[in-house]
Design brief:
Blueprint (H helix, E strand, L loop, with lengths): L1 E2 L17 H8 L1 H22 L4 H7 L2 H19 L8 H19 L1 H7 L10 H32 L4 H27 L17 H27 L13 H14 L3 H32 L9 H30 L5 H33 L13 H13 L1 H22 L3 H29 L5 H20 L13 E2 L5
Parallel strand pairs: 1-2
């Protein structure tokens, strides 16, 4: 049976007919463009912030921009995308606006040093306050834009999956796969030392080789995201909903948010709690992974010598290996999570793997410190880089962490989409509520990790240990009290004329 719902006005939250996998793959591919830029943030921006003169203990506070914007932007975007009456559809206008804001934001971030120096920052001083202000503004816009992109993308995937729960799981797995593709591209670009030579204009008096490489990576990121966004804009049609003349305004929005929380059943509350603990575990490592490689593993100092930069590049290589495993595991989740209890059991077990990996960073750090103390350094020279065995151990941690990361990127979103579809709620608002359980722990870690690390000597290990504890608790809850999603329900209807 073939149904054309393109022009039929329907309830905003009524499920669309299930669409072909070709559409789902195309929409999911935007995840590659989004994650390319996110990978650059994770691997390069913490060192870049410290090059601008922001101390390590304050670098995590800069990352509060993301959680704060996610706390507000994604629920708002989700709410209004559920009700958008544009002739271009409900989700696509927000996706297009998000892509445009990404382009603006990365320009500000990449050229923060240049703008700061032109505005009065001294090249001779380590701290560049005007550049920091430009960077923070660009970083804030970038996180707003990412939230404008990711929420509607996942909601659009749920929309075009219809009420087919199997396709919802597959769609979220495909989005996770393309996120891995974006990660590989981003971390590969971040690990290249001479990428700036492709864009010679990127190097200036204010912007050294590291800064120019960052600019060059962002140029490529913008091009990839815009190409994928345009393909979706011109190839995918959404159903339209009738215009509602009633003014729903901000009061109605906050009423809907509060109502969404009040009406949450126990299974959803448990899902939000497990997700919250899961992200407490992740965010400390995602924030400081390359900084850990540069400082604890390689023994370098920001802005001094070459060891720190070598460690950051090695960390980018580790993140690229992590992404390869993430991509393979994302496709494997489709089969591993089969069965009534498969998803929750997989999520629980994988959280214990996450905890073990985070604790193994202590062993690698201590071995690296022992090697440096045993090395003979003459005339204040830098100690030698860690031997191959220690580097291999650190890279192995990055690599294995790709397995739990694939589960984190897929299963929670699939479960909330399935619960939402069964209850008839709006996908955008439901994913926005889930996002709140992701950004609150990010805010907590951003506020706590800096003082916590400083209290224990200025390293990154305390945040990793906190993450390991949270991962264990999350795993126990996932396996014991998290309810299983409903049994798979499939539909055979498709939307006609989905591609132009």
């Amino acid at each position: 049976m073939t149904v054309d719902t393109m022009n039929s006005p329907t309830s905003p939250n009524s499920p669309e007919a299930s669409s072909p996998m070709s559409k789902i793959v195309l929409v999911a591919s935007i995840g590659a463009g989004v994650q390319f830029g996110w990978a650059l943030q994770l691997s390069l921006l913490t060192p870049y912030v410290q090059q601008l003169g922001v101390p390590h203990q304050w670098a995590s506070v800069v990352w509060l921009c993301g959680p704060l914007s996610g706390l507000l932007v994604q629920p708002i975007v989700g709410y209004y995308s559920d009700r958008c009456t544009s002739r271009f559809g409900r989700r696509r206008p927000f996706i297009a606006a998000g892509a445009a804001l990404v382009a603006i934001s990365v320009f500000l971030i990449g050229y923060a040093k240049d703008i700061g120096v032109r505005s009065g920052d001294s090249l001779d001083k380590h701290t560049k306050p005007r550049a920091v202000v430009v960077f923070v503004i660009g970083f804030w816009i970038l996180d707003v834009a990412n939230n404008m992109l990711q929420g509607p993308c996942r909601a659009l995937l749920a929309d075009i999956s219809g009420s087919d729960t199997k396709k919802m799981r597959t769609a979220n797995a495909m989005y996770s796969f393309f996120m891995a593709v974006g990660n590989v591209l981003g971390y590969a670009a971040g690990s290249l030392k001479n990428l700036h030579k492709v864009f010679p204009f990127a190097t200036t008096k204010a912007c050294d080789v590291y800064c120019a490489n960052l600019k060059s990576c962002f140029f490529i990121s913008i091009a990839l995201l815009l190409i994928l966004t345009v393909l979706v804009m011109v190839s995918i049609r959404e159903k339209t909903i009738p215009s509602n003349d009633k003014d729903e305004g901000g009061v109605m929005f906050f009423g809907q948010i509060m109502g969404a929380f009040k009406e949450l059943k126990k299974p959803m509350w448990i899902l939000l709690l497990v997700t919250c603990l899961n992200w407490i575990a992740w965010f400390g490592f995602l924030l400081f992974d390359t900084d850990w490689m540069g400082k604890e593993v390689y023994g370098g100092t920001v802005g001094k010598g070459s060891l720190y930069d070598m460690g950051v590049r090695a960390g980018s290589l580790g993140l690229m290996l992590n992404s390869f495993v993430l991509g393979v595991m994302s496709l494997g989740i489709i089969y591993l999570a089969r069965g009534v209890n498969g998803a929750k059991q997989l999520w629980g077990v994988i959280n214990f793997v996450l905890a073990i990996c985070l604790l193994m960073t202590i062993l690698v750090t201590k071995l690296a410190e022992k090697h440096r103390h045993a090395s003979v350094v003459v005339g204040g020279a830098e100690p030698p880089p860690p031997p191959a065995g220690i580097k291999a151990g650190a890279l192995l941690i990055f690599t294995v962490l790709g397995i739990p990361l694939a589960v984190t990127y897929s299963i929670p979103f699939a479960m909330v989409s399935i619960f939402c579809s069964n209850s008839g709620g709006g996908q955008g608002l439901s994913l926005g509520v889930l996002n709140i359980s992701i950004v609150i722990p990010q805010m907590l870690v951003s506020l706590v990790s800096g003082p916590l690390d400083s209290a224990f000597g200025g390293g990154n290990l305390p945040a990793f240990v906190l993450g390991a504890i949270a991962a264990v608790i999350s795993g126990i809850l996932a396996m014991t009290v998290l309810p299983s999603p409903p049994a798979v329900r499939e539909t055979n209807t498709v939307v006609a004329a989905g591609f132009h």
